[in-house]
Structure formats: structure tokens, C-alpha cells
Specification:
The structure is a homodimer. Chain A has about 250 residues and is an alpha+beta fold. Chain A folds into two domains: about 5-115 and about 225-250, PSTPO5379-like (3-Layer(aba) Sandwich), CATH 3.40.1640.10; about 115-215, PSTPO5379-like domain (PSTPO5379-like fold). In chain A, about 20% of the residues lie in helices and about 25% in strands. The longest helix of chain A has 13 residues, at about 35-50. The radius of gyration of chain A is 17 Å and the shape is globular.
Amino acid sequence: MTEAQAARLAMRRNEWTGYTAFRVPGYVQCNLVVLPKADAHDFLVFCQRNPKPCPLIEVTDPGDPHPSHCAPEADLRTDLARYVVYRDGVREAEVTDLVDLWREDSVGFLIGSSLTFDDALERAGVPKSKEVWVLETRLQTVPAGKFHGPLVVTMRWMTHAQAVIATQLTSRFPFNHGAPLHIGDPGIIGANLENPISGEPVTEIPEGIMPVFWACGVTPQSVALASKPGLMITHASGYGFITDLRADQFCIP
Amino acid sequence: MTEAQAARLAMRRNEWTGYTAFRVPGYVQCNLVVLPKADAHDFLVFCQRNPKPCPLIEVTDPGDPHPSHCAPEADLRTDLARYVVYRDGVREAEVTDLVDLWREDSVGFLIGSSLTFDDALERAGVPKSKEVWVLETRLQTVPAGKFHGPLVVTMRWMTHAQAVIATQLTSRFPFNHGAPLHIGDPGIIGANLENPISGEPVTEIPEGIMPVFWACGVTPQSVALASKPGLMITHASGYGFITDLRADQFCIP
């Protein structure tokens, strides 16, 4: 059994209930969105128009919870540790499985996560960031059908020299948000460090630190709040889906 | 008026009736697919599952012939020189506009074309190939809904050293088919050089020449023949849509 399979199984059995950030290195991690088929086309166009926050790794056939391309044995209803349910734009609940919520017309969207390249960054000489913050920005996504909303980013801290290496390296991962969206002053993209979606609030960036920002697959959750689809289920921020794909082999097409 | 705008206008007025290969250098060129909304979701999933032959530059809203992202002033009904109409898997007709065929539920898919990077290749020291052949292969696409069929490739001829440069350079253009799908012996991918879809038949590859193959946006035309959708319209091979996007600025996300 691979580490990816073991991790998914542990989540399925509720033995693994924590974050996936910095865990199971080497495998492509994904953000999840589940929508009824009636909303799937609009959301697919939304992803096409917003490839930085929403690079698609796989779209499942309606009703089929098994992602046949990236993890055929997996079950999207059980193999993530934590999900969030949005109804009519309200964050209704956090759940640990979708057994009762998955429908015959449910379509799963797996969106490449930047958690995928943290291991590759480390091997390239960029140590783990103190943490990976998730932040809303002033930037807007390109709308499609009912879907619209602000762009969400991740922020990592590194030295100025490491920021160059990180830009080079993550350019090889366009399906995991690709090159940084922004480097340096958070104010330029309207990222409020004192009020992150996830991570400890930051009041001051230390001397010698360059914050580096990538478009983030948590964007659909802000889109759910803004666009108010009837039902939209996502992973919880930091609780990714672990695929069978090897990160080093899943790069530029 | 830019060269791209002038080219589209000339096609709209039927003053430009020829190929776009090697023309209007510097602008992103696209392959076109037009489908009724009822088939659009399946085709969009098909493109997601086959990003090498079908990298999406834009998907239009139903009924809207204007690609607001990549060429807002353009009209997909008139601004290509030549289109092909497929009905129930039969290549029914070639037409020079879609004025009578465009419907209220028509969705346009613009797929990045490898014709985009020929100019960049030349600037990088890889002279124009003798021609750009289009060839069917033994490789199959990943199906989605009703859509399935063989993968189509383009072939360019270059020296072995130039093949390395071409691989490096085209890796920067994932929205225009990206890195080569294959280098060298055409037999390995089942490409029959004696019976190309477009280009002169080839009986022997000259000494010192390395054929280099990229996934091709003509693939949907083979998919139309194999999958037999009720109505599918495409560009004619070699007659691309010229966008306003600058090729050098539209690279890795």
C-alpha cells in the first residue's frame, strides 16, 4: 500500500482527522468542490476562466464518487478528513464524510493544491514556511454563470533569494497554481494579514522576509459565499485530498 | 488597428481566404469547436481530461459569438477563413462563415494552437519546419460522456539539437499544447506519414532530421467523426482563429 492509499484509508476510518499540509510529501494534493450536475457546467467554465486559483486535476462523472484518473480506489465521500457544506451562500456545517450528502447528480471537481509543491520547494533549498496562511484579497475572479467572488491566496514566508527559486520551481506546477500570483507587499493585492482565513494573524512581516503569494483552491469557498449556489460542498481549508499522482511527474503538460 | 484585428477583419470580409499557419506572428492562434449547450458540459470535461490536445483558452457563454476574454471585438461566426460542419459523425460541408449555423444555444470553445509558437521557435533558433503536418495516431484520448476518439498530432521537422530547444521553449506554452508529446520514430505513436490529415505525404525522413510531435487541436475533428454528435462545427485544419493575446505574454499560469 502506498503512503497515499494509507492516508486516504486512515481518513476514511476517521483515524486521521487533522490537516494534510506538509503531510504525505511527494503526492499531488487537491482541493475539492462538489456541485449538483445542474451547476457543473457553469463551475467548469468558471475554472477554465480562472486557471490560477482553479486548475482542474479531475472532474468526475455525475454520481460517481471515484476519481478514476487520479485515485481510482478512492472515494470522495469519505477520503477527506473534513468537509464544509454551503447552502444558499451560508456556511452551514463542517462534516467528516459525505455519505448522506452525496447525490446521484453530484459532480466532484478536484483542484490542484499548492500543498503539492512544499516538498519540492524544500528539496530545492526553500525550507518550510513558518506556516501557510490563507488570505482573501481585493482581486476578483472572472465570473461564469452564477459563479463570482474574490480571489483567495496562500502566503508563504521566505528570503528574497528563496523567492526567486520558488518562482522558478513552481512554474513547473501549473496544475497546482503555478508561479506566484504576487511577491512582496501584501497591500498591493489587498491581502489583510491581520485577518487570515486560516493561520495566525500577522501584525508585522519580519526583516529579511519576502511574503510570496499563490492563487489558492480555497477560492471556491469564497465564491460559494458570494454566489450563493443552492448546495456546494468543499474540503475544509488545510484538509486536502491526497491523490495517487506523483508531484514530480505531474508538471507542465 | 493591430495586425490581429486587421487579419480577423480581412477574414470577415472574405478578403483573406487562406491558411493562418506562419501568419500574424506573435499572436495566440486558436482551434475552434462549436457545440450546442446540451453537449457543452461533456465536451468541457473532455477538454479537462485531455489538456495536451485540448488546452482551453476560452469558453463562450451560450449564444454569444464574441470571445470577451481573448478577442472582445471578434465574432466567431465570421472571423475565421474556413469552418467544417459535422452532423452525426459525417463531415457535411466546409463553409466560410457561420451566420446561418450559429444558434441561440451555441457554445464556442477556443483551443490553443501550436501555430502560436512557430514564431517563438524561430526567434529561439529553430527555423520554420518544411511544413506543419497533421497526423492521426494510434493513441486514444480519455473519453468524457459521448466524446472519444484518436489523438491527432502535428509534426515538425528539425535537427536533433533543435529538438532540445523546441522542448524547452514549448514547455512555456502549456495553453498551446505545451511540450512535445513525442520525439523521433513516428511508428511508436502509430503516426502514418504516408497518409497525413494535412500536409504532403512523406515516404522517408531525411538523414539528420528529427520529427517532433505535438498534440493537436484538430483532435476534436477526429472526435466528431468517432463520437457522432448531432452537430459540431470546427475550424478547418490550418485555418486558425487569431486572438488579441500576445504569445510571449500568455505562457505558464
